[in-house]
Amino acid sequence: MLTATTSLPADPASQADAQPQSTPIDRQRNLSRREFIHEYQIRRRPVILEDATDHWAASSWTPESLCRRIGDKQVLVRGTDRCYRFDELTELIHESTPENPAPYGRNLNVHRDLPELLPDIQPRLKYATPDWKSSRLLPKDWLFQNGLEEVFYGGRGASFPVLHVDYWGMDGFISQMYGEKEFTLFSPEDTPFLYQPDDDPLSTRITDLDHVDLTEFPLYAKANMIRFMLQPGETLYNPSGWWHTTRMHNASITVITATWNASNWRTLISEIRRNWSKDRPFKARIMTTYLAGVGKLLSIRDAVLNGIGRAD
Ligand SMILES: [Fe+2]
Q1: In angstroms, what is the span from residue 107 Cα to ligand 1's centroid?
Q2: I need a labelling partner for 135 at 20 to 30 A (CA). Which of 34, 91, 168, 266 fits?
Q3: 304 Cα: distance to centroid of ligand 1 (angstroms)
Q4: pTM
Q5: What is the distance in A from the centroid of ligand 1 to the CA of 265?
Q6: Do 299 and 243 share a domain, yes or no?
Q7: Residue 237, pLDDT above cutoff 80
Q8: Dist CA 260 CA 171 (whole Å)
């Protein structure tokens, strides 16, 4: 098992303003599944897996190769509320600039929107199993589609709209297939320094991480930023609860694989309780009780099969 660390310096302007400095992130090759579980998943630590997608045909995706296959497909681009043909979106992405970024084709559900591409991202990453969300003990496509895999397709100057924590306590495996993508992460321990709005604990009121007004958000100076560039072929493991956002300096294609298992099941249950208790208290109680039971059963199954089961 090889270990290395990388990081990008934080924006020079932010350094001048005494903003958080970037701290390194682990990088791994040839990591066994057992090592991954014990070193990263159980300990809720992010890591860059340098060779996790070597077996995927998607490793050779380019904007042009995808246009040849799905150029005439319509995809709904979030934030614009309109559909684009994939080749039309590609043209815009090639012309994208920081001043005039192309629409960011994000959260394109592969199963629903681009099923032609499914074989290219199979078999699942060995680190992204088991996925309890797809268990037969749960209703099919409950909460959202089972086997959640999404494509993110953007151009130079585009970015994810906000620093956030992923919904429903999901663990994300974020695989860079083409181009590179800049990531900014903060640990769950930094949550007290990130100023969440009253009605949304999964987002922050800070809109520009490189130019934060420390008189308005003084605690931000205590946060430990992790910033790095994810390169083609690399996969970021982003454990539930970690804050993250991205921006692109060139055309970029990314695949996200979401998982739920012993490491984040309790987070899923507490998210359901938080979201449903007010308006649907009875349903919340029934569902969380059932999920807790399912979690116990699947933990035992994993422990028997793999010797790794552990409820957090
Ligand atoms: Fe996210």
Answers
A1: 9
A2: 34
A3: 32
A4: 0.90
A5: 18
A6: no
A7: yes
A8: 6
Question: Residues 68, 252: contact at Cβ < 8 Å?
Answer: no
Give how far Cα 139 sits from Cα of 132, 165, 189, 301, Å.
11, 25, 34, 19
Tell me, yes or no, whether 26 and 65 share the same domain.
yes
Q: Measured at the alpha carbon of residue 46, what is the angle toward residues 38 and 20, in degrees to the nearest 5?
A: 140
Residues 301 and 156 in one domain: no
Distance from the CA of 307 to the center of ligand 1, in angstroms? 30
**Residue given tokens 């797809």 in the structure block:** 134
Q: Which domain holds residue 231?
A: 2-255
Domain end call among 255, 281, 297: 255
> Measured in angstroms, how far is the CA atom of residue 49 from the centroid of ligand 1?
18
Q: For residue range 131-173, what is the model confidence (pLDDT) as tens digits?
A: 998 899 998 878 877 678 999 999 999 999 899 999 999 999 9
- Report d(CA 175, CA 50) in Å as an integer: 10
d(CA 35, ligand 1 centre) in Å: 25
Average pLDDT of span 286-293: 96
Q: Does residue 167 share a domain with residue 28?
A: yes
Q: Are residues 245 and 272 in the same domain?
A: no
Given 213, 235, 255, the domain boundary residue is 255
DSSP states of 34-90: HHHIIIIITTT--EEETTTTTT-GGGG--HHHHHHHHTT-EEEETTTTEEEEHHHHH
Centre of ligand 1 from the C-alpha of residue 192, in Å:
19
- Based on the domain organization, do 189 and 286 belong to the same domain? no
Q: How far is the CA of 43 from the centre of ligand 1 (A)?
A: 20
- What pLDDT score does 144 carry? 73
Same domain as 168, residue 109: yes
How far apart are the C-alpha atoms of 239 and 178, rounded to whole Å?
A: 23
Q: Rounded to the nearest whole angstrom, what is the distance from the C-alpha of residue 150 to the centroid of ligand 1?
A: 11
CA of 105 to the centre of ligand 1 (A): 14
